[in-house]
């Protein structure tokens, strides 16, 4: 047995009908089980969603030598009653030792009977015989960091040949499901209506977090999903998401950097329950063939495989029409799933409707063939975004060496991956000013993931009809400040932001407009004509007042305190801040002395960029204030406290608060 760490699975066990009926998820579980047995696993460690114990630091491990199985509702007993469980007490003791060594209050539970959330998976993965298995409880506090630590504590078992599985749910809110099909013993996977947007949105967030992050970044990404705006709709209770945290701990160490999760299968049921199946890592050898010539001829029909030069295949098995789907459930797969393929390699994506988005090498084209039939084929030579055939079958896709059409543009082939750690997502679309070595002229840009999007280049050959006069967005963005864009009507700015988000999501932004952030130089985003600093936080005032020998001033409760700052000393966070010289009271002689400041600090604050000036003598209402705000930025407000103590009386701070204000990246959110 290799000492290479075993893969880790996060499975969504779904309803009990995932045992009662066949599905693509069930097929995937069986495949994973076959691969595990082919690689000689010693046993299985599982955390489910239906067993938890109480106590601040408590965790339990199954040590019942003869466990029963809890009944499974709506499933015929023949599916599970005779399946013999195989509790592994030796493995259970290993788990107890590892957990207690890591500071948990771990104890044995000698009476626990197994529940369908775990043995359902075991039956599907290992239908002939249950491997030696130990089950770990959750903790009823459902602390995400706690459960991640549990997984991390058990990670050494992966290097000893044990398989770790978390079984919960990607989207699992029993209160939002439509139960009629299951209660009526009808087709549970029929999906008579599409799932809610909230379910689809969170399901996509789960996949994005898993496939785009590895190592410690994966732990952070999975944890942040619990703060996702749709999390509480997707999970009315936290129990079914703890397995994901457990898995993130088991495959989220520094040693696991580069081990990304992959979506292996997915089954929607009860309208809004999404059962996504993810695997992290690979076996040294697989139970299923890796090459076309390894597949028995009787199994080749209907498989999608690539038989040309190396390329990138993106495919969709999304139904053209909801009721025309050839699958047993809603076949939701995003269009941005890329897979690199080499000649003869099996493509790990099923295609039921059409093939999309292949990135070609020079002199190549794509051919789509239905079910290996040469009579039903089409070559991709049009200047469009997809190649398809009308029949609802599976396709064989090949990239062949042929003359590349002159009018072909693979505009959907450029993908910007955005990790959960990135502040620059499609929900952000910040604005800033950049330059590069190849083009030192400052111009406006936005950011997505690790790329800056050159807005001047993007708008150069495009028109935008909502602008007055002869100005174009190219003219507005092709300059070294955002002032002119900021002065536009808020509705226009909002429309531009939405347009960019849509175009970036659809991959319609040319690759030439995307520049790696590490290659750009940031500039101050706006020409700043004035800078004022407001003291708005009551807690901050309460903390500062005693230092000045007094209480919070009464006028604070009527209007925030404010002073004028110095615009010339505003710098980017990448630029140095000089230690100021000034007059202080000598700590020994108490006499005024000119010297460098010895008491510098900074306060983290939020900066607001005002987009529309207010003419002298005029006022704006509170209701209209939002129309004058362009964006926000994090900034550090630097202070020289010893200089400030000398300057405060009678007119307030001057140089002590005016020598440096640094803003992050110079990008506006």
UniProtKB/TrEMBL annotation:
<feature type="binding site">
    <location>
        <position position="637"/>
    </location>
    <ligand>
        <name>Mg(2+)</name>
    </ligand>
</feature>
<feature type="domain" description="Extradiol ring-cleavage dioxygenase class III enzyme subunit B">
    <location>
        <begin position="8"/>
        <end position="254"/>
    </location>
</feature>
<feature type="binding site">
    <location>
        <position position="533"/>
    </location>
    <ligand>
        <name>Ca(2+)</name>
    </ligand>
</feature>
<dbReference type="InterPro" id="IPR013736">
    <property type="entry name" value="Xaa-Pro_dipept_C"/>
</dbReference>
<keyword id="KW-0828">Tyrosine catabolism</keyword>
<dbReference type="GO" id="GO:0008198">
    <property type="term" value="F:ferrous iron binding"/>
</dbReference>
<dbReference type="GO" id="GO:1902000">
    <property type="term" value="P:homogentisate catabolic process"/>
</dbReference>
<keyword id="KW-0585">Phenylalanine catabolism</keyword>
<dbReference type="InterPro" id="IPR011234">
    <property type="entry name" value="Fumarylacetoacetase-like_C"/>
</dbReference>
<dbReference type="Pfam" id="PF01557">
    <property type="entry name" value="FAA_hydrolase"/>
</dbReference>
<feature type="domain" description="Fumarylacetoacetase N-terminal">
    <location>
        <begin position="428"/>
        <end position="525"/>
    </location>
</feature>
<feature type="binding site">
    <location>
        <position position="644"/>
    </location>
    <ligand>
        <name>substrate</name>
    </ligand>
</feature>
<keyword id="KW-0378">Hydrolase</keyword>
<dbReference type="InterPro" id="IPR004183">
    <property type="entry name" value="Xdiol_dOase_suB"/>
</dbReference>
<dbReference type="GO" id="GO:0004334">
    <property type="term" value="F:fumarylacetoacetase activity"/>
</dbReference>
<dbReference type="GO" id="GO:0008239">
    <property type="term" value="F:dipeptidyl-peptidase activity"/>
</dbReference>
<feature type="binding site">
    <location>
        <position position="637"/>
    </location>
    <ligand>
        <name>Ca(2+)</name>
    </ligand>
</feature>
<dbReference type="InterPro" id="IPR015377">
    <property type="entry name" value="Fumarylacetoacetase_N"/>
</dbReference>
<dbReference type="InterPro" id="IPR014436">
    <property type="entry name" value="Extradiol_dOase_DODA"/>
</dbReference>
<protein>
    <recommendedName>
        <fullName>fumarylacetoacetase</fullName>
        <ecNumber>3.7.1.2</ecNumber>
    </recommendedName>
</protein>
<dbReference type="GO" id="GO:0006559">
    <property type="term" value="P:L-phenylalanine catabolic process"/>
</dbReference>
<dbReference type="GO" id="GO:0016702">
    <property type="term" value="F:oxidoreductase activity, acting on single donors with incorporation of molecular oxygen, incorporation of two atoms of oxygen"/>
</dbReference>
<feature type="binding site">
    <location>
        <position position="603"/>
    </location>
    <ligand>
        <name>Ca(2+)</name>
    </ligand>
</feature>
<keyword id="KW-0479">Metal-binding</keyword>
<keyword id="KW-0460">Magnesium</keyword>
<dbReference type="Pfam" id="PF09298">
    <property type="entry name" value="FAA_hydrolase_N"/>
</dbReference>
<feature type="domain" description="Fumarylacetoacetase-like C-terminal">
    <location>
        <begin position="532"/>
        <end position="663"/>
    </location>
</feature>
<feature type="binding site">
    <location>
        <position position="657"/>
    </location>
    <ligand>
        <name>Mg(2+)</name>
    </ligand>
</feature>
<dbReference type="Pfam" id="PF02900">
    <property type="entry name" value="LigB"/>
</dbReference>
<comment type="pathway">
    <text>Amino-acid degradation; L-phenylalanine degradation; acetoacetate and fumarate from L-phenylalanine: step 6/6.</text>
</comment>
<comment type="similarity">
    <text>Belongs to the FAH family.</text>
</comment>
<keyword id="KW-0106">Calcium</keyword>
<dbReference type="GO" id="GO:0006572">
    <property type="term" value="P:L-tyrosine catabolic process"/>
</dbReference>
<dbReference type="InterPro" id="IPR036462">
    <property type="entry name" value="Fumarylacetoacetase_N_sf"/>
</dbReference>
<feature type="binding site">
    <location>
        <position position="605"/>
    </location>
    <ligand>
        <name>Ca(2+)</name>
    </ligand>
</feature>
<dbReference type="GO" id="GO:0008270">
    <property type="term" value="F:zinc ion binding"/>
</dbReference>
<feature type="binding site">
    <location>
        <position position="661"/>
    </location>
    <ligand>
        <name>Mg(2+)</name>
    </ligand>
</feature>
<feature type="domain" description="Xaa-Pro dipeptidyl-peptidase C-terminal">
    <location>
        <begin position="309"/>
        <end position="369"/>
    </location>
</feature>
<dbReference type="InterPro" id="IPR005959">
    <property type="entry name" value="Fumarylacetoacetase"/>
</dbReference>
<dbReference type="Pfam" id="PF08530">
    <property type="entry name" value="PepX_C"/>
</dbReference>
<feature type="active site" description="Proton acceptor">
    <location>
        <position position="540"/>
    </location>
</feature>
<dbReference type="InterPro" id="IPR036663">
    <property type="entry name" value="Fumarylacetoacetase_C_sf"/>
</dbReference>
């Amino acid at each position: 047995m290799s000492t290479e760490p075993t893969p880790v699975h996060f499975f969504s066990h779904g309803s009990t009908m995932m045992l009662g009926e066949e599905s693509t998820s069930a097929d995937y579980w069986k495949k994973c089980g076959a691969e595990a047995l082919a690689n000689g696993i010693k046993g299985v460690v599982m955390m489910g969603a239906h067993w938890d114990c109480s106590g601040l630091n408590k965790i339990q491990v199954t040590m019942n030598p003869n466990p029963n199985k809890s009944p499974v509702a709506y499933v015929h007993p023949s599916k599970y009653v005779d399946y013999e469980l195989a509790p592994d007490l030796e493995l259970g003791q290993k788990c107890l030792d590892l957990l207690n060594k890591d500071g948990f209050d771990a104890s044995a539970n000698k009476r626990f009977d197994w529940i369908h959330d775990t043995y359902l998976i075991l039956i599907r993965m290992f239908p002939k015989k249950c491997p030696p298995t130990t089950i770990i409880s959750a903790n009823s506090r459902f602390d995400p960091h706690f459960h991640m630590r549990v997984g991390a504590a058990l990670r050494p078992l992966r290097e000893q040949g044990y398989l770790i599985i978390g079984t919960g749910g990607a989207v699992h809110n029993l209160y939002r499901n439509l139960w009629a099909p299951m209660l009526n013993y009808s087709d549970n996977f029929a999906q008579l209506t599409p799932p809610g947007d909230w379910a689809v949105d969170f399901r996509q967030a789960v996949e994005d977090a898993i496939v785009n992050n590895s190592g410690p970044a994966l732990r952070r990404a999975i944890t942040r999903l619990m703060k996702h705006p749709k999390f509480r709709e997707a999970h009315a209770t936290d129990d079914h998401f703890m397995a994901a945290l457990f898995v993130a701990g088991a495959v989220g160490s520094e040693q696991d950097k580069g081990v990304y999760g992959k979506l292996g299968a997915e089954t929607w049921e009860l309208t809004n329950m999404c059962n996504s199946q993810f695997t992290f890592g690979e076996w040294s050898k697989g139970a299923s063939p890796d090459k076309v010539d390894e597949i028995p001829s009787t199994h080749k029909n209907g498989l999608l495989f690539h038989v040309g030069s190396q390329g990138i295949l993106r495919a969709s098995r999304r139904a053209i029409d909801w009721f025309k789907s050839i699958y047993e459930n809603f076949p939701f797969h995003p269009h941005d799933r890329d897979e690199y393929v080499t000649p003869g390699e099996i493509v790990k994506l099923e295609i039921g409707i059409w093939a999309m988005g292949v990135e070609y090498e020079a002199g190549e084209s794509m051919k789509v063939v239905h079910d290996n039939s040469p009579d039903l084929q089409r070559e991709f030579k049009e200047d469009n975004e997809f190649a398809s055939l009308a029949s609802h079958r599976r396709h064989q896709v090949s990239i062949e060496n042929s003359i590349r059409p002159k009018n072909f543009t693979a505009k959907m082939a450029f993908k910007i991956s955005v990790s959960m750690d990135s502040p620059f997502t499609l929900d952000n679309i910040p604005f800033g000013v950049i330059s590069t070595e190849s083009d030192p002229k400052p111009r406006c840009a936005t950011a997505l993931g690790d790329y800056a999007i050159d807005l001047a280049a993007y708008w150069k050959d495009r028109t935008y009809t909502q602008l007055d006069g002869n100005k174009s967005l190219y003219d507005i963005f092709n300059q070294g400040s955002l002032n002119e864009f900021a002065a536009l009507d808020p509705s226009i700015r909002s429309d531009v932001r939405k347009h960019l988000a849509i175009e970036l999501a659809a991959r319609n932004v040319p690759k030439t407009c995307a520049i790696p952030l590490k290659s750009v130089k940031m500039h101050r985003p706006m020409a700043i004509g004035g800078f004022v600093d407001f003291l708005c936080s009551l807690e901050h005032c309460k903390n500062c007042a005693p230092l000045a020998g007094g209480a919070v001033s009464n006028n604070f409760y009527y209007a925030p305190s404010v002073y004028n700052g110095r615009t010339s000393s505003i710098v980017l966070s990448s630029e140095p801040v000089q230690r100021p010289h000034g007059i202080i009271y000598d700590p020994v002689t108490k006499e005024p002395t000119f010297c460098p400041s010895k008491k510098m600090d900074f306060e983290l604050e939020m900066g607001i960029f005002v987009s529309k000036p207010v003419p002298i003598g005029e006022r704006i209402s509170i209701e209209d204030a939002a129309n004058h705000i362009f964006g926000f930025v994090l900034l550090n407000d630097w202070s020289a406290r010893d200089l400030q103590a000398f300057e405060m009386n009678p007119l307030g701070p001057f140089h002590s608060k005016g020598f440096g204000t640094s803003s992050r990246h110079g990008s506006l959110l």
